[in-house]
Amino acid sequence: MPAILLQNVSVLPAGGAAGEPILHPLSLELRNARTAVVGANGSGKSTLLKLLNGLVLPDTGSVSIDGLDTATQGAAVRRRVGFVFTDPISQLVMPTGRDDVELSLRASIRNRGQRRAAAEARLEALGLLALADRSIYDLSGGERQLMALASVLAVDPAVLVADEPSTLLDLRNTARLRRVFASLPQQVIYTTHDLDFAADADRVLVMDNGAVVFDGGPREGIAAYRALALGVR
Amino acid sequence: MRRAAGSADLLGAYRPGNSWLHAAPLGLKAGALVVLSAAVLVLRSPAVVAAAAVLVLTAYATAHLLRESWRPLRSMWPVLLLLGAFQWWASGWEAALLVPGNIALCVAAARLLTLTTAPQVLMDGLVSLARPLRQLGADPERFGLTLALMLRSIPFLLGSARDVRESAMARGLERNPRALTVPVAIRALTVPVAIRAVAYARQTGDALAARGIGERI
Prior knowledge:
The complex is a heterodimer of chains A (233) and B (217). Chain A has 233 residues and is α/β, with parallel strands linked by helices.
């Protein structure tokens, strides 16, 4: 698995505004196949994830993926780290899933026919080929999220980062997403409020007020989060 | 955010098909569009407009899209009507027919291009067209990406304007004329749309950056 290193990383409020840091100084090494990040809204989960592909840059310290620094080698990092947003409508920029996957492939495949075939292969792999030409607005929430995932996976990233990918999904679609995540060869790091989904991970980070307050196995991590959020064990 | 029907009427989202027009090369369709638009705008003759209208309707029919031909009028008719009335007052009946007719015809013809051409083909075409600009340091792929983002953003913005208007109606603003003076109405409708547009632009930028699209490597 790629080595993701965060060394003494902190993120401060935008524009030098006063207030608590969004992320307190933090050092982590992420090598597990599946890492889940749990925590309350506003605890810094999304900021931590956005650091991993350079969507947010640290105010102190450094973040590197296989030795590539997100601050100075952002474009190279983003070729290795795919990012899935909570709301797939924000992510899908083309009218149909096929067009969106082809957009991801434009940089690597110039020939239109080859690009189309590659897009179809990727959609087929996720069972989405039948929906390829449907407007993204006509897809269900689950289909849309999987389509956004297909667009990100199209460029074969080594790491997949997903920010609450199941938040807008019903039970059936969450189960489908979990199955897809389980089958991916990539290293996957995701945030979630769904504790069953978090339990699929090899490692769980619990965040609170911009700090990682627990780092360990899924069973202990979920217990720590329950204790933190509900005051129960 | 739901899709804005009005924008789909005007822009024409791609309709997959097997007609000769779907199969025709983009260069041929774009060239024909330029020639037709130039002819009706330069010659300014009712006979030319009528002939061009027959041509465009025939093209719609043979592309199995005849029902689509009138859709731009659904969102354009108030503007065309106002324009026609002004032209009739300023220049007479011929101008009142010609000016709105030319505009409707050019929009319908341009819409036929987007209805029968896949977005990826349009992007490839624009990238090819912009390729000579590489000598000046421009990135042709960015031209294609800009086109894709424009096609995606206009429906979003129109849908956003509609949502804001409906949200104002839901709060009863239109039933209280005293509360809705013109400056208040403008502020109530434009500020939320502008804020949503900025948020949308940021989200789209993040989504593209997250996939490394549009970055120089």
